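pasting for the record
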Amino acid sequence: MKNRIKLRALTMDDAKITWKWRNVDDIMDEYSGHPFPVNYELEEAWYEKFIYSNIPTSAFGIEIIKSKKLIGMTFLKNINFLNRESEFAIIIGDVEERGKGYAKEGTQETLEFAFFKLGLNRVFLKVAEDNSTAKKIYQNCGFIKEGILRESMFKNNKLKNQVLMSILKSEFMEQ
């Protein structure tokens, strides 16, 4: 199953693809990021912030090797070298490519980068408590539930709980 995708640097040309993803209802609803529609200018400004610096956020495009098609993005956010930790996030924006195992592969490749290239020890994430699909992917990648962040995400005019999950380098290496 491995080696179907690769992580690559995002380019300004990718903004033309990713800004459309950010305006898909289920992406706005399920992810804890920006809950509002995004125009192309805002997407370009977002790219400008991280494309010229990899710290404190590293963002990668998820590309299918055979077709060279960009299908998603992964992020290491708020990289903290002192505490050797970072927050993880992933989006499979291409609806046609969901459910094919690319999220798991992209997560694992991002964790490899975090632990072996950046020297981090802990990667954590927050996921909506009712997002069972994402929680299952994260568990299959070795993430462990640490707790509940009560009413920590406001979406669709209601407060939702988020699950805090993490994986340590030693746990990742045991897999």
